[in-house]
């Protein structure tokens, strides 16, 4: 009788050394038929897998794999951080926020963590549920939940809002919708992206469908990828094959999670609460139809309206000489920033990509990436 | 360095190296002996006598696979073994918090006795202090030990010299490694730290793994009897990552290891993924890493595997002159640098 597959067996399949060798060999064979090719991914978890397993060291010289704007903390507008810091310090409002987000500094050079050391009441939470619980426990205090992240975190917030949240809790929405950002990346002239590895978590929620219109315009390979090293290698091979056959496609490598329609229930929940409008991504710029803002009927829980915070805008938002913006956008690798691992380290971060565990600089720093080791096949 | 000592300064990583260099060595790096303090090796050697002192503050005191008593004997005995010594005798310092139960004290002393018998090293002197409640957490042990040259050490070095004429070290030191030497690990990594974590308050996961804490007398005997061992070190705080970086720095070589060959239990790997820990940075208390000349590596491996504590040994990599990093070939064949840990991710494991 066949033995049942354990979780360990499944994970091992996606890290299988023999399969990896075959894939790398195939990638090299295909790549020899191509010129310089830039593949961009837009997810901190993909960057972690790529760096942790040394995937770049396995690629031929002409295949470049670069991280784009895939870190929620990094792309959260500096002006939103400034606004919420002001609420905490001047209005004595309790801010509930994810741990990573609390350490990112705004345009004024102050983070929520800094605000706490100045006396503000900042509570670290893991989800909107925690914020609701805290607000319920202290009905006399005013709470704001700093809603940051992508399509992956927005549904939970929308769901809680529909269920009803306590009156003393409002939400500052800095949520962003990923598909239009990928569209913007594909047409950015200064990037010259040849193909995209699409984010697995986000696409599980949105589905592949919203990417269709951006694909139709760009006609560049687009592969929806999982997060194990074999997933990433297969995705790269899929992209190279598409490029060689000159037959770009939207292709799904992550079939065990991503579908064409996505999580319809989650997306419906989001759109019951939010509209999509033009939105600013820190370091990246303005992206049409990418910001989740509250529908009018939820204006009483919209911190932006309740406290008159105004819309996020671009501002001079990174410290001098730091290339955070170029790293976030995917124009350069962290090692090209003059501050990387000099003034700017995980202990002394100068910008959000070194603050967040999903930031490209932080991931590279923790793996001590100062040079890419190539290896012989 | 900031103006106060933090937990990270005692955690076996880079911060602790800074404390040692900027404070301890600044005052105490003098004295002309066989192996002086400034070499920062596992033990010091003066006039042929090996001397080692270590303090133990593990939480909890009793854990799956061992207790603070077994840990104290093993830790000190192992550090004497690691420079090529034969442990002769131990000195026990007991610092006890007011209110500590005699029942627990009895159990710990019994464990010290049993482990010392296992290693064949008696405790011959000691000291006892009781401090007021709150001055420390229950119990701190100090275990010091002396040793002499291991009877097989000269044979071991003769064997090295057959292949490497210029080998001049009299002891197994961190600075002895040359490109081409093989790196052998005696068994599964991470067991000790994960076993401790699994019984810590506030950590909510179950894992069926016991600490590896043990004196490494037999594996070292066997390895030295074969010969060809140029360096030995136990991957305690900071784990394999710290050990290999110390070797690379002190020997001025690069080290390449292969992820696929590193023995690690599925349960430990899973716990690490769940907790966000790197198994290479976890402390061990019953493992040894040997650097062995290429020609004898297979023979030493075989000898290790014939022992109970070394039965899962593997050759995990080799020293190289291609670079001066510690680099790991990952399971999928990619390369990445293994940096020295900033500090042990789990405090008070030893």
Describe the structure.
With about 375 residues, chain A is α/β, with parallel strands linked by helices. Chain A is about 40% helix and about 15% strand. Chain A has a five-stranded parallel beta sheet. A four-stranded parallel beta sheet of chain A has the order 4-3-5-6. In chain A, helix 10 links the parallel strand 5 and strand 6 (about 170-175). Chain A is globular, with a radius of gyration of 21 Å. Chain B is an alpha+beta fold and about 350 residues long. Chain B contains nine helices and 14 strands. Chain B has helices spanning about 15-30, 70-80, 100-120, 155-165, 190-200, 215-225, 240-250, 265-275, 295-305; strands at about 45, 50-55, 60-65, 65, 85-95, 125-130, 140-150, 180-185, 230-235, 255-260, 290, 315-320, 325-330, 335. In chain B, strand 5, helix 3 (about 100-120) and strand 6 form a beta-alpha-beta unit. Chain B starts with 13 loop residues before the first helix and ends in a 13-residue tail after the last strand. The interface of A and B includes residues 24, 53, 58, 367 and 375 of A.
Give a quick precis of the structure.
The complex is a heterodimer of chains A (377) and B (350). Chain A is an alpha/beta fold and 377 residues long.
List its traits.
heterodimer; A: about 375 residues; alpha/beta; Rossmann fold; 5-stranded parallel sheet; B: about 350 residues; alpha+beta; 60s Ribosomal Protein L30, Chain: A; Phosphoribosyl-aminoimidazole Synthetase, Chain A, domain 2; 2 domains; 7-stranded mixed sheet; 5-stranded mixed sheet; 9 helices; about 30% helix; about 25% strand; globular
């Amino acid at each position: 009788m066949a033995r049942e597959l354990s979780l360990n067996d499944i994970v091992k399949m996606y890290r299988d050394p023999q399969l990896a060798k075959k894939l790398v060999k195939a990638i090299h064979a295909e790549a020899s038929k191509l010129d310089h090719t830039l593949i961009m991914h837009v997810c901190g978890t993909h960057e972690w897998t790529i760096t942790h397993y040394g995937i770049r060291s396995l690629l031929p010289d002409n295949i470049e794999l670069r991280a784009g704007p895939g870190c929620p903390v990094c792309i959260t507008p500096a002006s939103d951080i400034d606004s919420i810091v002001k609420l905490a310090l001047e209005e004595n409002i309790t801010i509930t926020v994810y741990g990573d987000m609390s350490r990112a500094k705004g345009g004024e050079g102050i983070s929520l963590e800094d605000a706490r050391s100045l006396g503000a009441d900042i509570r670290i939470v893991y989800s909107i549920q925690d914020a609701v619980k805290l607000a319920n426990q202290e009905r006399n205090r005013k709470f704001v939940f700093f809603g940051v992240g992508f399509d992956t975190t927005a549904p939970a917030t929308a769901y809680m809002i529909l269920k009803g949240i306590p009156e003393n809790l409002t939400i500052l929405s800095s949520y962003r919708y990923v598909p239009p950002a990928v569209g913007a990346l594909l047409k950015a002239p200064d990037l010259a992206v040849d193909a995209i590895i699409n984010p697995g978590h986000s696409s599980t929620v949105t589905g592949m469908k919203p990417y269709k219109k951006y694909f139709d315009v760009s006609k560049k390979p687009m592969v929806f990828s999982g997060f194990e090293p074999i997933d990433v290698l297969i995705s790269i091979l899929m992209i190279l094959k598409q490029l060689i056959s000159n037959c770009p496609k939207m292709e799904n490598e992550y079939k065990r999670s991503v579908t064409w329609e996505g999580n319809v229930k989650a997306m419906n929940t989001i759109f019951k609460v939010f509209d999509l409008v033009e939105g600013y991504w820190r370091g990246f710029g303005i992206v049409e139809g990418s910001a989740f803002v509250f529908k009018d009927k939820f204006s009483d829980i919209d911190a932006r309206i309740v406290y008159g915070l105004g819309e996020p805008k671009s501002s001079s938002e990174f410290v001098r000489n730091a290339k955070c913006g170029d790293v976030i956008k995917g124009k350069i690798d962290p090692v090209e920033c003059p501050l990387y691992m000099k003034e700017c380290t995980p202990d002394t971060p100068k910008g959000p990509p070194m603050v967040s565990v999903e930031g490209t600089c932080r991931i590279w720093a923790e793996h001590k990436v100062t040079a890419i080791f190539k290896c012989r096949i | 360095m900031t103006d106060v000592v933090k937990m990270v300064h005692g955690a076996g990583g880079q911060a602790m190296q800074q404390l040692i260099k900027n404070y301890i060595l600044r005052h105490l790096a003098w004295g002309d002996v066989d192996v002086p303090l400034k070499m920062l090796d596992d033990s010091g050697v003066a006039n042929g006598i090996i001397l080692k002192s270590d303090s133990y503050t593990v939480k909890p005191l009793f854990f799956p696979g061992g207790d603070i008593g077994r840990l104290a004997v093993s830790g000190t005995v192992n550090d004497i073994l690691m420079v090529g010594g034969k442990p002769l005798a131990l000195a026990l310092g007991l610092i006890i918090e007011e209110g500590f139960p005699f029942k627990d004290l009895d159990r710990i002393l019994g464990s010290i006795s049993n482990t010392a018998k296992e290693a064949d090293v008696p405790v011959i002197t000691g000291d006892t202090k009781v401090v007021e409640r709150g001055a420390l957490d229950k119990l701190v042990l100090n275990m010091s030990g002396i040793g002499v040259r291991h009877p097989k050490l000269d044979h071991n070095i003769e064997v090295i010299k057959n292949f490497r004429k210029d080998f001049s070290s009299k002891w197994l030191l961190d600075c002895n490694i040359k490109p081409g030497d093989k790196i052998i690990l005696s068994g599964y990594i991470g067991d000790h730290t994960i076993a401790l974590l699994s019984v810590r308050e506030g950590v909510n996961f179950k894992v069926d793994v016991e600490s590896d804490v043990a004196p490494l007398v037999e594996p070292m005997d066997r390895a030295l009897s074969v010969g060809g061992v140029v360096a030995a070190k136990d991957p305690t705080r900071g784990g394999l990552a710290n050990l290999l970086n110390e070797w690379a720095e002190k020997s001025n070589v690069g080290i390449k290891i292969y992820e696929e060959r590193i023995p690690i239990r599925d349960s430990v790997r899973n716990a690490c993924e769940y907790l966000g820990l790197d198994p290479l940075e976890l402390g061990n208390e019953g493992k040894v890493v040997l650097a062995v000349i290429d020609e004898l590596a297979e023979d030493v491996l075989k000898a290790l595997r014939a022992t109970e504590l070394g039965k899962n040994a593997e050759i995990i990599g080799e020293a190289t002159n291609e670079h001066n990093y510690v680099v790991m070939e990952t399971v999928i064949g990619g390369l990445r640098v293994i940096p020295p840990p900033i500090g042990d991710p789990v405090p008070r494991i030893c």
